[in-house]
Amino acid sequence: MRMEIEYKRMAIFGTLSLFFYIIIPLILINILSTLDLLSFNSSFIITLTVLGIFSVIITIIKNIFSKNTVKGNIIGIISSVFSGIYTFYIFGGFSPNKTWGSYQITTENFVALLGLQLIAWLLLIGAIIRACGSAVHLMENIKRNKKEIETSEKFQYHQIFTFIGIGLIIFMLGYLGSIIYSGTNIGVNVRENYIPSYDNSGTPFDYEDDNINITANFDLQNYGFYTISDVVIDVDIYTLETSDTTQIALPDNTKIGEVDKAKYKSFPAKQSSYNEEITVSIFSEYVGGLVLYDANLSLQIHFSSFYAGIIIDFYMTQKVQWDSIV
Questions:
Q1: Alpha helix (H) ranges present in the chain?
Q2: Number of H helices, E strands in the chain
Q3: What is the spatial distance between Cα 118 and Cα 241, in angstroms, rounded to a whole number?
Q4: Which of 34, 62, 172, 293 has a 20 to 30 Å separation from 308 between CA atoms?
Q5: Residues 117, 95: contact at Cβ < 8 Å?
Q6: What is the pLDDT of residues 42-53, one digit of tens each?
Q7: C-alpha dihedral over 160, 163, 168, 171, to 10 degrees?
Q8: How many angstroms separate the CA atoms of 120 and 311, rounded?
Q9: Contact present, 138 and 74 (Cβ < 8 Å)
């Protein structure tokens, strides 16, 4: 009868782990990819599946034995370590040379790259705590088998790790929930109108010493729980189509100006900031072209920041209409 119960336990937990480690992640990946909310490369999906298969096998083996046996504790340690590796990989912990993990949000108007290494490390710490709990339980069972401690039901040291693990899970769920909620309450609006600044240096018919700066305004609403900090903005400005028929002074599809690593103040939680400025300097060789010709311009904006322990790289494109100055 005892073996029958263990086999039933093995089947139940094996099936649950199959759903948790393989089926549900693949379904989510398919849904998010279909909706163009996140993109996943094939190597990530393959590695995730392989790790999931090993996790299922380890879970099945773990539940063959009772958790109060030496074998059960040894398998428990292996299971905790492997689950830590699994979640550490999912959240980009094995990407030390990148500023983000494996996740990219893509919509029609922007692309966002998310650095989730903090979550990866917290989950890995949780796995290490569970492994330590299984190791302590192992030592307790070894002593019990040697009759060095009593077998009566009482508080045991491995239960401390259990309580810590439960507390960490509750913290992680609350933390992730707050990030999701806060993320839905952040908005960025780059205005289509712009403010040109033209300086002819006192020589109205000589464009070589002239300067043009284009200032665009943006609003940022942060109604989440966390401050947006370490904000750096890069902007590249390109021509799309111009009225320059010669394509010499102001050719189509050409980078004509930029702003490099403009640093901004932090944006506090529960506040909005309006009319923040981005000033783009035009390269001197194209100043004359903008003075003389109309153009459709594209502002390619890169916004990087640190938010709730997550590194965010945000890319968007804003099109504007340029009218010649003369």
A1: 2-18, 24-34, 42-62, 70-90, 117-145, 158-183, 287-292
A2: 7, 9
A3: 44
A4: 34
A5: yes
A6: 877 888 888 888
A7: -140
A8: 13
A9: yes
Calpha distance 93→18 (Å, rounded): 23
Cα distance between residue 319 and residue 108, in whole Å:
13
Express the helix, strand and coil content of the chain in percent, nearest 5 each.
45, 30, 25
Q: Is the overall model pTM greater than 0.70, yes or no?
A: no
Where are the CATH 2.60.40.10 domain residues in the chain?
187-322
Angstrom distance (rounded) from CA 45 to CA 249: 48
User: Residues in the chain, how many?
Assistant: 326
pLDDT tens digits for range 18-77: 888 889 888 988 887 777 666 677 877 888 888 888 888 888 887 777 667 777 778 778
Are the C-beta atoms of residues 183 and 305 closer than 8 Å to each other? no
Tokens 């712009």 locate to: 194
Q: Which residues contact 320 (CB under 8 A, 6 or more apart)?
A: 192, 193, 194, 216, 296, 297, 298, 299
As beta bridge partners, residue 317 has: 300
Residue type at 89 in one-letter notation: Y
Q: Which of these, 228, 220, 232, lies nearest to 309 by C-alpha position? A: 228
- pLDDT value of residue 309: 76
String of DSSP letters for 130-146: HHHHHHHHHHHHHHHHT
Report residue 284 as tokens. Answer: 């001197």
Q: Which of 258, 252, 254, 250 is nearest to 214 (CA)?
A: 258
